[in-house]
């Protein structure tokens, strides 16, 4: 049981570390990034919208996986509380 708990904590920490965005992260390929930067320098704000949109699309699967993991944890924890022996 302790191994599963430590594994769950480790996986949670790794997912949290991966999900934490870096301030210098780029959300698109090099070609799109270059076009977005050049457009931003000329007063065009579409590059920022492109970056935000890609990060938003990346966040949705992460939230789904976290939700499934949470539900799985709740179900697993509920089963373990029923098997208490004295």
TrEMBL record:
The chain crosses the membrane at residues 53-73. Keywords: Membrane, Signal, Transmembrane, Transmembrane helix. The keyword Signal applies. The keyword Transmembrane helix applies. Residues 1-27 form the signal peptide. This is LPXTG-motif cell wall anchor domain protein. It comes from Sphingobacterium spiritivorum ATCC 33300. The lineage of its organism: Bacteria, Pseudomonadati, Bacteroidota, Sphingobacteriia, Sphingobacteriales.
